[in-house]
Amino acid sequence: MTKPRLTIVIPIRNRQELGERALRSAAAQSVSQAEIIIVDDASEPPFQIPVDLRSNESIRFIRHPDNLGAASARNTGIANAGADWIAFLDSDDYWLPGTLAPRLENAEAGFAIDRNPLAVHAAGFILESSIAKRLETRIPRESADPLDFASGCWFAPGSTLLARKEAFDRIGPYDIELRRLEDLDWFLRLALRGGELKVWNKPAALIGFDSHFAEVHLTRAVARLSDKYLAKRSPDRLSGKLARRFRAYMNIERAASCSNRKRWFGVLFYLGWSFFQVPRTALHLTRFWRFEAPPIDIAPAGDVGGRAKHDFPASS
Predict the structure, then answer these.
(1) Helix, strand or coil for residue 74?
(2) Which residue of 188, 196, 219, 259 has the lowest C-beta tally within 10 Å?
(3) pLDDT score for 132
(4) CA separation for the pair 52, 289 (Å, rounded)
(5) Which 8-state DSSP code applies to residue 150?
(6) Cα gap 224→99, rounded to integer Å
């Protein structure tokens, strides 16, 4: 059996319709020798591969009998990947047509030159926000600065990341104790060990923005991450500007949690604390993107229902 060139990992939990959309957008990409691994994290009812795709031998299905979280689902996909390159796609997002092949070629060309397995790749993305009521195309900046990676995941890694499997061997898997902020943790570890983020400067994915999450998951994540990066005994203990950035971002997450529950005093308290720790003129800790007008056609690759429709306009 020929070794695949790329493994696409799609973790899914209780999203049949959206998961089908994501899967179709991945299956329609023009990448030779690519495999797709669907990791069903104990969906009820179980996720079903669409009938017309069941004969596609490049699609593999793995099901967790118990709900273990996105970090564990991604780890399962990585562990079962047959390729040296891994791409991630969250089940509520989708890829734009014809975007995966040039991204992979760009990543392969870069690796052929520098042979650096800790150079990971992201891409531009279109943010679909039901709060802001608009579509925003964001092109993230490249970085190798741990300060940036302590400031959040501004590059939508769940659906734009391309990385060598060796990167996970060196950095370690996603932390399965985290049901929130698992991306921030992994990329901060990457940056602290000399990793860097490279960017394909065109939009590759449409990202659905969901601000609602279980408060208990955030509370536990903040406690675990604080123990990892602020405790004196930690080998990855942050100090100085790095520690302030990290604390300021944790307070943004706390403010978002309070906003979801309409706890306005908490929103003001945590945002005020964050601005005190890192003085600035905007909510985000620094400017991570440049903005562009979205492409004219943002239908997912493989869309069988015609052009994707949205209830709000694009924003440049």
Answers:
(1) helix
(2) 219
(3) 58
(4) 38
(5) T
(6) 36
At position 52, the amino acid (one-letter code) is D
The b/e string for 172-203 (b: 16+ C-beta within 10 A; e otherwise) is: ebbbeebbbbbbbbbbbbbbbeebbbbbbebb
Phi, psi values for residue 110, rounded to 5°? -65, -40
* Domains in the chain, CATH or no CATH each: 6-210+289-311 (3.90.550.10), 215-277 (no CATH)
* Strand partners for 127: 136, 207
Given a contact cutoff of 8 angstroms between Cβ atoms, the answer to whether 236 and 229 are in contact is yes
Please, which residues have CB within 8 angstroms of residue 112's CB and are 6 or more apart in sequence? none
Amino acid occupying residue 314: A
Model confidence pLDDT, tens digit, residues 253-288:
999 999 999 999 999 999 999 999 999 999 999 999
- Does the pTM of the predicted model rise above 0.85? yes
275: nearest Cα among 253, 251, 241: 251
Q: Tokens representing 62?
A: 């793995």
**Residue-wise DSSP of 6-39:** EEEEEEESS-HHHHHHHHHHHHTS--TTEEEEEE
Distance in angstroms (rounded) separating the CA atoms of residues 53 and 231: 49
Cβ distance 162 to 104 under 8 Å?
yes
Contacts of 119 (CB under 8 A, 6+ apart): 110, 111, 195, 196, 198
pLDDT tens for residues 111-155?
999 999 999 999 999 998 666 567 899 999 999 999 999 999 999
Bridge partners of 95, per DSSP, are 205
In 3D space, the residue among 75, 34, 37 whose CA is nearest the CA of residue 171 turns out to be 75
pLDDT at 227 over 50: yes
| Rounded distance between C-alpha atoms, residue 96 and residue 26, angstroms | 9
Q: Bin 141: left if φ > 0, else alpha if -120 < ψ < 50, else beta.
A: beta
Please give the backbone phi and psi of residue 64, each rounded to the nearest 5 degrees, phi first: -80, 130
